[in-house]
Amino acid sequence: xxxxxxxxxxxxxxxxxxxxxRRLETYFKQLENAWGATPVQLxxxxxxxxxxxxxxxxxxxxxxxxxxxxxSREGVQTVNWHHPDYPPRLKEIADPPPVLYYKGxxxxxxxxxxxxxxxxxxxxxxxxxxxxxTKDLARNEITIVSGLARxxxxxxxxxxxxxxxxxxxxxxxxxxxVYPKEHxxxxxxxQEQGAVVSxxxxxxxxxxxxxxxxxxxxxxxxxxxxxxxxxxxxxAKWTVQHALEQNREVFCVPGSIFSPVSRLTNHLIQxxxxxxxxxxxxxxxxxxxxxxHQVQMPFPVAAEDDGEALLLGxxxxxxxxxxxxxxxxxxxxxxxxTLLTMLELKGMVRQVGCMHYIRIREVIPAxxx
Length: 369
Known about the structure:
Blueprint lengths: L3 H7 L7 H11 L2 H5 L3 H6 L4 H13 L2 H10 L3 E4 L7 H4 L7 E6 L8 E6 L5 H16 L3 E4 L5 H11 L4 E4 L13 H9 L1 E5 L11 H11 L3 E5 L7 H10 L3 E5 L9 H8 L3 E2 L3 H7 L8 E4 L8 H7 L7 E2 H8 L3 H13 L3 E5 L2 E4 L2 E4 L4
Parallel strand pairs: 3-4, 3-7, 4-5, 5-6, 7-8, 8-9
Antiparallel strand pairs: 1-2, 2-6, 10-14, 11-13, 12-13
Helix pairs in contact: 1-6, 8-9, 8-14, 11-12
């Protein structure tokens, strides 16, 4: 589509959003005509004087062909809202981005997508819940959408990747401005098994004001949004607000009434959000068929000595601190530490942070499948 370069060039004008792009397209039919229009013609198209002046200014600094060459060098693909590769679900929202930039691939199967968001400072419980549910969703061929932020976002992306599934990371700046920087490798992995996307041109910094607006794309590309731990001031509330405005489902993992990072999720459940404790809760609410029905069965206690068996008997899905395990097992701390290390090596327990441990449960296909 030769016309795309003019969409890309006009997208360099910050004041041109969904409404003004539609005015230009309605009046000029082809955006090549809008790119070369006079201020008078732009005003006739419904563009205000200050925005028309900005278009003229940008036109003197930006080359449509140059923009496309730069994107090509960076490995960035672009689509406008008429392109068949533009996410169909995103077209349904009130203010879809006129241009979408992405690295990786956007596939038809990504219509089976669920957003997973939450706090940047999750508890051990939150980390484990996010990873477990996300992995199961990914194994059921659900694309995981999130914002590449620290905490729950990053956990969700990594869990989807580890499960061999697809994930889409939505940025609040240009694709050459990955934030936070320590997630650059994670972004590269995401584009190998999905995509990294943005509505912002290259070079645009991820300014604080961009994040609430970015979140409408996270919810907009998804059938529903799952919130795993979020405090009252969490940015996840913007994603939830957008999801509700877009008539999308909202799911929440319940948390402790004493935990500050569970206040928003618990409140949302009170307000009618679907309480989620496993992958099936999400699939059933969205009327999606599970790819493979699975049941959770505990490992049989096949430890090599009585000490290992004793510790396994005191561990389950709820993270427990090593001191609590020691008290329950009535064993010396040195013995508990050694036994836990051996059980970790055997893949029977996992440390989930700050000396908290859980028992790993084996997933066994139901009905011999």
